Amino acid sequence: MKLVFQTLLCGVLISTSVVAAQAQDSRIQTASLDHLASKASQSLDVNMDERLIKLAAAVFSDDGDEKKVKQLLVGIKGIYVKHFEFENDGQYAAADVESIRTQLRSPSWSRLANFTSKKDGNLEVYLLMTGEKVGGLAVLSTNDRELTVVNIVGSVDLEKLAQLEGQFGVPELGIEPGKAKPKKEQ
């Protein structure tokens, strides 16, 4: 009986360690960007851990679009955003962006989308897969005067996220195959 208990305890500890490691793997380290706040004309730093997300989810009702947002937050362990706007070009270095991209090159992360525009800059979307499930999402957006890193840690339901594209500040990411995107007027 003691051996069975020890075996079960070991299994629980290993499972807990694996889940914690997966959550840690999906958290992008952005402290290397903190020095940019003093150069930026505007900056935003969002750090919502699981406790704060549950508190925020409680505010949404169970009706309409708010219900969709509430359902999307189920399984999310953290939402982290760093955003910097600069008055002049060249206020951040390529090394700043590379510190984020290096983390996203790990075998766990897969690039889902890469949009490049000479006028609008670059937008990259990455997914962290844990088996067949999405365990994290990262968005890296850069242009001459802005740098943004968005990191969602935890289970991300892409179908639910796709339903929110273009609403509540969620950009059109093109994550739902076959979803028709409105053509932009020229």
Map the helices and strands.
Blueprint: H1 2-26, E1 42-49, H2 50-59, H3 64-73, E2 76-85, H4 94-104, E3 109-117, E4 121-130, E5 133-143, E6 146-154, H5 158-163
Antiparallel strand pairs: 1-2, 2-6, 3-4, 4-5, 5-6
Main β sheet profile: 6 strands, antiparallel
Number of helices: 5
Radius of gyration: 19 Å
Helix content: 25-40%
Going by helix content, strand content and strand pairing, the class is: alpha+beta
Provide structural commentary.
There is one protein chain. The protein is of the alpha+beta class and 186 residues long. The chain has a domain of 93 residues. Helix content is 33%, strand content 31%. The chain has five helices and six strands; from the N terminus they run αβααβαββββα. Strands 1-2-6-5-4-3 form a six-stranded antiparallel β-sheet. The chain is globular and about 45 Å long.
